[in-house]
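hey so i finally got around to running the thing on that chain from the lab meeting. sorry it took forever, my laptop kept dying and i had to restart like 3 times. anyway pasting the input first so we r on the same page abt which one it is
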Amino acid sequence: MLRLHGSITPKLVIPILLVGGWATAITCISKLVYDLGTDQVFITVLGFVVSLALSVRSSTSMDRYFQGRQLWGRLRLASHILARLVWIHVEERHGFDAELGKQDLLGKVSCLNLIVAFAVALKHKLRFEPGTHYEDLKHLVGHLDTFAQGANMPAPDPPSAFRRACQLFGIPMATPNPRRHVKKSAVPLGDLPLEILSHLSAYIKVLYDTGTLRDYSIYQTQSLDSLTIMDEVSCGTERILNTPLPLAYSIAIAQVTWLYILLLPFQCFNSLGWITIPACIVAAYIILGIAFIGREIEDPFGHDVNDLPLDAFCQQIRQDIDIIISHAAPLANDFMGRKENMPLYPLSYLSTRAWADKSPEEIHVALSQRVALHYPMVGHGESPAPPAQGRLCGVERWTEKGASGPNETTSNYRRRYGSV
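ok and heres what got predicted. didnt touch it at all, straight out
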């Protein structure tokens, strides 16, 4: 309740002080000089209008916030699909030519790096940060011919301590305008995410032409669909960014809200007396807090604490790509046939190799019995316990005397399948 990081309270300090001073002045005048109290009918009518306006403002801002989150979730999904498709299904021609195979491998890695570059470039675009000189971007796109590469400009000077303090308290004149830095550019800045997509499309075309991505229509469709999703995410986030709440509507909400707050002391004095001052302060804190929160999350892509964590999203996509390329493309025969693979657990501890010696009918009979078993559950923070003799998973188990491990569930399985 007392947490300030991420709270709207610091930005409400100055407005609350103004409201407190205004309520104190009206109350003192009404108490000591002339009674300014009025009937409370007006506050009821205007309160309904204010609540309706703030509700629309808050719901619109929250909708934009969650739309932005959904779009970044789709970007991560498209990145996974395209990265897996390229890393696993694109062949490396090592057997045909060693040098050509290395080029194929490095080409796949470069393609996956461009997927990360797209996410990072989109983040900077949404924050009105032109160019490619950023530490998390320049090594990813330095080899590309783009407008942003030729339009590098120095980063804006950091705000002074006074300006940062003014921003902390929500003074409008101190609010930075990142669009101004972009509009004053003397050269075209281009659209870096779109240009990265063009390079990715060119790489996919090379895969089709060389046959390293075999002519399977499903692979081609998935790769193009992934690029389409990435383009939709770019356009969708830009739509949210460049379509704010209409200015006239925002002004009307602010005017009605402040009119309601400034009229509160007149309406409350007759019934509350000196308590009008703290009552108006509390009411102003609630009303202005809702209004300020709606205004802050209206643009969910900025640097505010309550904005979407775009840096974390980009880092997550980068880590996902690194996990995919950390091992060579796995072959099913390599991991399916390992002795640690127990396909019929917990019915049997036999490995895939052992079950391969049995007939399909025997495997199907065993599978029909496994449906009645229950898998052992492990609670949060617990380590799985070794299988105990006697009852396991609700089924009677036994161990043959002298055997090194547990055997099949019943004597019938023992006769049919042998010891486990």
